[in-house]
From TrEMBL:
Protein name: Transporter family-2 protein
Species assigned in the record: Lentzea roselyniae
Protein keywords: Membrane, Transmembrane, Transmembrane helix
Transmembrane segments: 37-57, 78-94, 100-122, 142-159, 165-188, 200-222, 228-246, 253-271, 277-298
UniProt xrefs under Pfam families: DMT_YdcZ
């Protein structure tokens, strides 16, 4: 893989990360206004799904991508469970609506990192995603360890408030699922031969899951807010998922996760700084996470054959 292709993949993943950070703030604010995190998540995912349906069905390349994916499913070149990565995205978006208003975008984002880094290491080693398996190396393992330390530091100021600290478990679990999501989305991209079709599949499964949750746990909501920007979460999610799908072929699941985290953290720190949620331990955690990306990107010998 050429150096320029790797740099392009890293940049795309980072831009997607910034979009996810902004999406977190948008969805968190919408959930506060509606007093219903699950409904806010459905609005976000459903809005993105509607846009993708129009885009994919209006283009021949999109329709061809759906046909190729169907053929791959029928011939079992790809398995059905590899097409449900959107469930992970749905859990992440729902967690944004539930937790961000309390713990802030930066703590939420850093908490995602530890799960994302650990799961990405496992997924890369197993070869679950597209491309060859990527072995554990000293630098990859060290980068993951620094990422774990970053999470502990970032949430340390919450240790005296366990009532809010437990909310960090939600993004932690979401991060654990994201490594798998990025891998299977990469497989769907190879089967469909079309990135936007892949994103549509992702949003379809996520929207269906959130619709079911809202039907089961239906409850009244406050008045829908008038601010138009609160309904942009779906479009931001498209950018975030799309960046990961395209870049995973170039740099692997772990580096996609770490580069995306860089983008997420930069965006999250700026958002929290403007809203007054930013604390010194969070800033230190962000810096440590950025260090973990640099360490993981360094060449190194294998830890295991």
């Amino acid at each position: 893989m050429s150096r320029s292709a790797q740099l392009t993949g890293g940049l795309l993943a980072a831009v997607g990360g910034v979009a996810i950070a902004v999406q977190g703030r948008v969805n968190g604010t919408l959930a506060q206004s509606l007093q219903n995190g699950f409904l806010a998540a459905l609005i976000s995912f459903g809005g993105g799904w509607l846009v993708l349906v129009v885009v994919v069905l209006s283009r021949q390349s999109g329709r061809d991508g759906l046909a190729r994916l169907r053929e791959s499913l029928v011939s079992r070149r790809i398995r059905w469970w590899e097409c449900v990565g959107g469930l992970s995205g749905a859990f992440l978006v729902a967690s944004q609506g539930i937790a961000i208003a309390t713990i802030g975008v930066a703590v939420f984002t850093v908490a995602v990192v530890v799960g994302q880094v650990v799961s990405s290491l496992v997924v890369d080693r197993s070869g679950m995603g597209p491309g060859e398996p990527k072995p554990f190396t000293v630098t990859r393992g060290l980068g993951a360890a620094v990422g774990v330390v970053a999470v502990v530091v970032a949430v340390s100021h919450r240790f005296t408030s366990p009532g809010s600290l437990w909310l960090a478990v939600l993004p932690l679990v979401a991060g654990l699922l994201m490594g798998w999501q990025q891998a299977v989305n990469g497989l769907v991209r190879e089967a469909a031969g079309h990135s936007v079709t892949t994103i549509l599949v992702n949003f379809t499964t996520g929207t269906a899951a959130l619709l079911l949750v809202n039907l089961v746990a239906a409850r009244g909501v406050a008045e829908f807010p008038a601010q138009w920007w609160l309904y942009l979460g779906g479009l931001l999610g498209i950018v975030g998922v799309g960046g990961a799908i395209v870049s995973v072929r170039f740099i692997g699941v772990l580096m996609v996760g770490l580069c995306a985290v860089c983008g997420q953290l930069v965006g999250a720190v700026l958002l929290d700084a403007f809203s007054g949620h930013l604390a010194l331990p969070t800033v230190i955690g962000v810096v440590l996470t950025l260090v973990s990306v640099g360490v993981a990107a360094l060449p190194s010998g294998k830890m295991r054959p």
